[in-house]
């Protein structure tokens, strides 16, 4: 194999990245990190508060839940976030924040499906 072939092979290997998997604290269903909602407990030096993390990049200990209303309700009712994050009590608005984020995720999924369908029907490739 030539040096150019080896370089091209290495470049291709670097481009393909695995998507991180996380499990829902309620149903334990593994899913892509991007499709789950993250709840984070900030470090003690930052106050240690619990909040929803729409970006998925906030500092602190995180727990993940499915974007379904059922899993969100069960997580709050069964105190799954308190157990996973070793934090208590949770903000009273956390469930509403997560449901609002869930609606946005669902909306984005629908838009993505429409774009992919339009691209397929025109013969273009969407990436």
Summary of the model, kept short:
The protein is an alpha+beta fold and 127 residues long.
Describe this structure in words.
By secondary structure, the chain is of the alpha+beta class. The chain has one domain (18-122): 2-Layer Sandwich (Hypothetical Cytosolic Protein, Chain: A). Helix content is 45%, strand content 16%. The chain is built from 4 helices and 5 strands, in the order αβββββααα. The protein has a 3-stranded antiparallel sheet with strand order 4-3-5. The protein has a two-stranded antiparallel ribbon with strand order 1-2. Helix 2 packs antiparallel against helix 4 (94-122). It is globular. The model has no long low-confidence stretch (mean pLDDT 85).
| Class based on secondary structure composition and strand pairing | alpha+beta
The percentage helix is 40-55%
The overall average pLDDT, rounded, is 85
Encode the helix/strand succession as letters: HEEEEEHHH
Basic shape? globular
Descriptors:
alpha+beta; 45% helix; 127 residues; two-stranded antiparallel sheet; 3-stranded antiparallel beta sheet
Write the topology of this structure.
Layout: H1 3-15, E1 21-23, E2 30-32, E3 37-41, E4 50-53, E5 61-65, H2 69-77, H3 80-85, H4 94-122
Antiparallel strand pairs: 1-2, 3-4, 3-5
